[in-house]
Every structure is written in structure tokens, then in C-alpha cells.
Amino acid sequence: MTNLHLHSARTTSGELVDVWIDTQSGRITRVAPTTELAPDPAFHTLDLTGRVLTTGFIEPHAHLDKAFLADRVDNPEGDLMGAIIGLDAIRSTITFDDIVARSTQAAIALSQNGVTAIRSHADVTLEGGLTPLLALLETKRRCAHFIDIQVAMLLEWPLTGAQGAQRQSLALDAIAAGADIVGGCPHLDDNPTRATEILLQLAQEHNLPLDLHADENLRPTSHDLETLADLALRMLPTVPLNASHCVALSVREESDIVRISEKVAQASISVTALPQTNLFLQARDTHSGKPRAITPIHILRASGVTVAAGADNVQDPFNPVGRLDPLETASLLVMAAHQTTHHAYEMVTSSAASVVYGHSRALEAGNIADLVAIPAHNARHAIAMAPSERIVIKNGRILTPETYEI
């Protein structure tokens, strides 16, 4: 296959660059300022004049097993427990093939929007067993030629007390089945501190990253994130740690937020903000001084914490809308979390890549050529307009409609 030359692309910092890609290895071989060069017959040249070129978007927190269930699940209360109860009511109707079909549809839409990697959680429950996890592992296999998918177990609670042993055993089954990530919801457990410890030990013992649904509430007493930081500083785990949501941190006193953020940075824990779903689910019974229900990104970042952002749920009882587009997430970060457009774009690209891959995957020679080119003047314009005509490159190859014929 002919190597690829991307001509006259604009970076988010405003530079015009040319990028050369070895399609055999799927890696960038050179990035240089744009000049008028004679065509090289060894390369297929693609003119990207008028487009912003960046590394591909990364979706660091999805629930592909639930995607597009909004019309099948009732959540009249509109809150987190209402969504959980509604989903439990129809769980017996959710089959392996059903999950594969819906999750594949979502993965294709994400890829077409420029997403080159997804971390998706999959429910692991006593009633549903490993079906969602196994279905997402099948989706991962089917879609591997156009998108990377990491599958995290979302372990049912409680993990503590008399009922905990069964679920801890289920976690071992999930790991044996091929789960890429350990995850759970300590804030829903009767003993959140012990649940966090169990999940961290499980990740460390099996050398898997940990990604918690942490403090997904607006209770100032919720402390999953700080507990994880304390445990990590004491146990010194060698696996990557991420805490998603962390909404309760936003209602703490500012001095507490700073103190906890500094501890989180010291423990090398990344945080994933999920503005869309948290804005929908949280603070529904508050009418005066309604909180925005987004983790305090500014203070976390100032403390040295890597903060990524994702869409979380899409068109299901936890979030009835969503377009599977990281530029939608970035727009919400600007409007609801007061992030600059530069930082918002970074949170759905390089920071999200740091969560999923452990490094930022910059537009540099030697890195994998997972890229997206968007018709826009700059990152701000891309976020504002979210144009649909995107050129997506995965492992150095341009994706076409035929790519998605599975």
C-alpha cells in the first residue's frame, strides 16, 4: 500500500504542517512545516487545506452495552437510581446479540466522528452474569480494524458484607473472560472504603488498570476519590488508576477540594469528567443554588491531575440524548465547566489518551497515526460548529464507508 502524505494541515496551535505516514507500520514518520514540495511518487498526497488535524478523539468512559436503550427503559424520576431501577426491570430482555448490535452501531458512529479508541464499561451482575462483558469483547473483536476498545467490568454492588463474596467471585470470572479493566461503584456500597480497597487489590493482583465510578452524587460526605488516593499512597500500586465522575468533590469546601486534589496528583490518579450525563442525572431535587454537577476541573488541573472528559451514557435511561461526538462533550466543558476551548479539546484528545493508553499520543514522528482532520479554522471553530465531514485515519489508513461493513 502507498504511504500517505498529509499536506497543509493546521494544528491546534495554528501551524501549517505536512505529515508523512508509513502505512505499513501505521506510524507517523515525519512532521514538518508546510512548504511547496514536488509530489513524491512513493506517497499518496491528501490536501488538508482548510482542515484542523489532530490526534484522534478518545472516548475514555462509555457504556456501549446500554447504548440506544432510551426507548426501552423508563426513568420517570430522571435520576441515577431511577435509571438503575429502570434498567434492572428489563435486564432479562437484553441478550448477547442485542448488545453486540447496539454497541457495534455506537462504535461505528464514534469512529465516523473521529474517535479512534473507546474505554467502555460493561455491567457485571449476578442476574445478567458476564453477558454484557462478553458481548462487548465480541464487539471489540469485530471492530478492531477501525477502533480500539477497552472493556472494563462494572462490578455490581455490594462487594462487602454477606453478599460481597458472590460478586467478588464474579469479578474473577470477568477477569478470566478477558476484562481489560477493573471497575465498580464504591459510593453505592454499604462500606465504600472497603469496596474501594477490594477493587484496588483486585486490579493490583491481576495487573489490570482500575477505573472507578467514584462519588457519583452530590453528598459532601462521599469520599471515594480521597479514599482511593489514601489507599494508593499507602499501598503504592503499580497499575494505572482513574476515577470517573467525582461529582461530590464539587460540593466540598474549596480548601478540601485543593487538599484532595493535591493528594490525587501525588497518588498519580487521573480523573474523567462526564458533563453530559452528570448534568442530566444530578441535582434534580435542588431548585435554589443548583450545582452544575461537574467535578472541579480547574483545581484538579492546577494541582497537576490529568483530567480527561467523556460522554458516559448515550441515549439510554442515564442520558436520553447524546450524539456520540466528543465535540459535543467539549462544547459542554466550555459552557458548563468554564474550560477554554483549548483545554476542552485537549481533554477529549491528549488527556483522554493518557487515561486510556498511559500517554498522550501527540502528533509527532514515531507515534501511531490515529488522526482526525476537521474542516475548521482552529479547535474553537471545530468545537463550535462540529462539522460532520471528518477524515479519520486509523493506524495510518484512511477509513472509508467500506471499513464499516462488518
Overview of this protein structure:
- The chain is an alpha/beta fold and 406 residues long.
- It is 34% helix and 21% strand.
- It has helices at residues 80-90, 96-112, 131-142, 164-177, 192-205, 224-235, 254-266, 275-281, 297-302, 326-337, 341-347, 350-357, 379-385, and strands spanning 3-10, 16-22, 27-33, 43-47, 51-55, 57-62, 115-124, 148-155, 210-214, 241-245, 269-273, 307-309, 371-375, 391-394, 397-398.
- The strands form four sheets. The chain has a four-stranded mixed beta sheet with strand order 3-2-1-4, with no helix packed on it. A four-stranded antiparallel beta sheet has the order 5-13-14-15, with no helix packed on it.
- The mean pLDDT is 96.
Question: Which key features would you list for this structure?
Answer:
406 residues, alpha/beta, four-stranded mixed sheet, four-stranded antiparallel sheet, 15 strands, globular
The fraction of residues assigned to DSSP E strands is: 15-25%
Radius of gyration: 21 Å
Using the alpha-carbon principal axes, give the shape: globular
Low-confidence sequence ranges = none
**Largest sheet, spatial ordering of strands:** 3-2-1-4
Q: How many strands, what sense, and barrel or not for the largest sheet?
A: 4 strands, mixed
Distance between the termini: 22 Å
- Report the count of strand segments: 15
Offer a concise description of the structure.
By secondary structure, the chain is of the alpha/beta class. The chain contains 13 helices and 15 strands.
